[in-house]
Amino acid sequence: MIPITMTGRLSSCVLLSYRTPAAHVRHLVPPPLELVTRGPWAFWNVVACRVERMRPRGAPRWAGVCYHHVAYRLLVRAPGLGPDGRDLEGLYFVRSDADHSLITRGGNVASDFQFHRAEIDLRDETLIGGDLELHVVGRRDPQADATLRVIPTDNRGPLAPGSPFRTAEQAAAFLKYRPLGLAANAMHDRLHLAEVFRDETLWRETPLRVIESRWRFLESLGQIDLTLERATLVAPIEYRWRLGRRIQVGSTAAQANAAPTASPSRLAVVGPRRP
After folding, report:
1. Is pLDDT at 269 greater than 70 in this prediction?
2. Which DSSP helix (H) or strand (E) runs through 207?
3. Is residue 132 part of a domain?
4. Structural domain count of the chain
5. Is 262 exposed, middle or buried (0-12, 13-18, 19+ CB in 10 A)?
């Protein structure tokens, strides 16, 4: 597949991190990927957002597509496949829901995001001090059904009961969103990358308090013991998605080439988490 770069704007974006027993989700992640864990815990990263004017890089804004996207990702690593033989960390997409047929059809060709078609209602009143509400209804697929209601708060609040983190700052650093999708081919000998480029100086997150949440897809996986560790609202930001790069597993040359190319506009892809 020839790599393609898409561009657009991420808005009305909620990020939620849940911990779950690693033993309950390890089977969902294909080799060579491994779960990122802390003690016995693995972590879901759930995103609910609106994407505006998604289009191939260089195309005019009017040609872009606007849609809502809900995605269920697990924090994962590819051992030894990052720059200089380091681990490459990112997100493994277990499922995505979108409310635009072009995105679901084209997205499943160009990416490993596991798109499904759903009706998504995202009402954002947070800019005037109200709630942000999300309602998802599956089109012939009840696993897509979801409900979320959140409100902004002035602080991160206390850690979740039984949290494996000592402080809220430690949790935020560990669970920081990795803008890198990782997947593998059917033979497990090639790693697929979905790289996100953004201006890191414009990345802003506001803590959220979750009033109500229900995720039918996670329930269908037996994820009834989830614990919310972190919830934030991301300020609108311009994004670029580069889809289609591959890394041959076990290839030293490929590992050396896994480092993302720097951009003169200070847009950068975030790779492995620093120790």
Report:
1. no
2. strand 205-215
3. no
4. 1
5. exposed
